Amino acid sequence: MVQFSPPAPQDAPAAASSPGQHAIDTVDPARASLTLSLDAGLYPIEVLYAAAYIFLDRAYVLLDREGLEGKGGRFLVRLRGKLPMNEKQLLDLSGEFGNELLSQALRRKVVKQNQKLIEEITTRAIAGAAGGALPTDFLGGDDDGMDFLDDPLGIAVPWEDKFKKKKEPEATAAAPGADEEAP
Amino acid sequence: MSEADTVSEKDTVSEKDTVSEKDTVSETGTVQVRLHRGIYMQQAIREAATTFADFAAFAIARDGEHYLVTIRDIDPETDGDVVAEFCNFALANTAARKRKKAA
Predict the structure, then answer these.
(1) CATH number given to A22-115
(2) Using one digit for the tens of pLDDT, what is the confidence trace for A66-118?
(3) Collapsing DSSP states into helix, strand and coil, what is residue A130?
(4) How far is A68 from chain B (nearest CA, A)?
(5) What is the three-class DSSP state of B71?
(6) Which domains does chain B have, with CATH numbers?
């Protein structure tokens, strides 16, 4: 049974908008755009890439960074809807982005935790497909010194040869009359 | 994209053209986009520029912590926002390249 533990705060911050972690900087319904500000120390860049990638079909995404790398710095995420959006829709979009960040952070954590298991299963699967897991009976270790044409059990003998009736001598004795008729 | 493509024309782009709303077209039809070097990969930006080469002219230069992408001669008959789509492509290419690197 697989158990999921809630992510540690440093790996997956809450999606809720708190000023220090994930805040909406600007909302501009006229341009259908909003800017989010994320704490770079809390959100790994890989998580940001993954979340942004999900939104590429719905919005134009522009990422930027301000301040120092890591703690103290902030990622700026500018989202602009491909279709016109009102303020509520923009706020929804922001919330969805936050949820996606959380989802990707958890996914990353689970993959990290199960990395060895995944690698082991994959290795076994590939080894099996490559023929490494054949039963020992089929391995060539027990050579009995026989040629492939040898047939000690008579399996290769045709049925007709094996059960052919032997010619009866009486049948050949009645034949002389027939010989006489022949020219 | 050749080295000649990197912004020698940078000088001809006036300060006025540098738009704060990064994906809006200025009066002269030139747009400058600043992509952070710690986030976007240069190869990914070049790849995106190649993808959109039929719709606009791109020039890439370093500018401090950013890549400064100057986009000119945007085809007026093109449907959609070339600049914003270019940024999306640059981001998607970067994410794909980083994922490949990590694998």
Answers:
(1) 3.30.70.60
(2) 887 656 789 999 999 999 999 999 999 999 999 999 999 999 999 889 988 88
(3) coil
(4) 11
(5) strand
(6) 3-102 (3.30.70)
